[in-house]
């Protein structure tokens, strides 16, 4: 198992570096790696300056957003003990998107703190899912059904802003899709600061995630607090999903796909699972954005659509497998 983990980490890191390099030099403006590096150092190449201002921020945001969504999925699945939990499916991302739009519309000068606006909506959505799903425990199917309803409510509220002026229309479009176009270094600064904080906090909670795999009674006998652990882990999961939604838009299924694949490759120990999922999530979203950006160039397919095409069938597969496991 140890060798399998090492090989998995190496493969993901190599693929991540390769895809990042390919994404940086491929597009409407093509340069080779040598020209890109030289242009970034000297600043004498106009094409490279365009890439620096438009393509590199997009690349970095894809990496951080993918990592944040994947780790958020790992944490939500740990705290809910539900392999189908994902911020995009159970309404956390749509809640974050709604309050983000509301916050930047009312307080446009506080754009740097927009992830905190998104966090409030994500936390509210998460609380609603918990409240309506709890019935002597968290039933996996009830969580999904309630989450779909919460997602629909917040998505509808977000869409109402389409009729309240051009600035808000732009905000809604940014929050509800994920083309990742026209991102700036200011956006990079926000997602790297808040994203790094969230990812570090997530890794520090690995032992609590491992404890929640046990029965509540067992955790209490070991001296742990189930309620406190769930609260902390849920808060970090919502923070990560909110950060990604505020900057990259609503992207579903990364938090569903990556944890399942990662467990098959590196096991269920969250000390290893969380960093591996971060790398794999970054790779998946970068691949989705690069494919969407280049497959029908100069037109683009949003990364959120690419992920829906991949993730929808995967969710059906997981539901079908659960039915077969339960003998239905």
UniProtKB/TrEMBL annotation:
The keyword Metal-binding does not apply. It comes from the Bacteria. The keyword Lipid metabolism does not apply. Keywords: Cell membrane, Iron, Membrane, Transmembrane, Transmembrane helix, Transport. Pfam families: FecCD (PF01032). InterPro entries: ABC_BtuC-like, ABC_transptr_permease_BtuC. Its main location: membrane. The chain crosses the membrane at residues 59-80, 87-106, 112-131, 143-161, 190-214, 235-258, 270-288, 300-319. It is a multi-pass membrane protein. It is found in: Cell membrane. Part of the binding-protein-dependent transport system for heme-iron. Responsible for the translocation of the substrate across the membrane. Belongs to the binding-protein-dependent transport system permease family. FecCD subfamily. PANTHER family: FERRIC ENTEROBACTIN TRANSPORT SYSTEM PERMEASE PROTEIN, HEME-IRON TRANSPORT SYSTEM PERMEASE PROTEIN ISDF-RELATED. This is Probable heme-iron transport system permease protein IsdF. It comes from Metabacillus niabensis. The lineage of its organism: Bacteria, Bacillati, Bacillota, Bacilli, Bacillales.
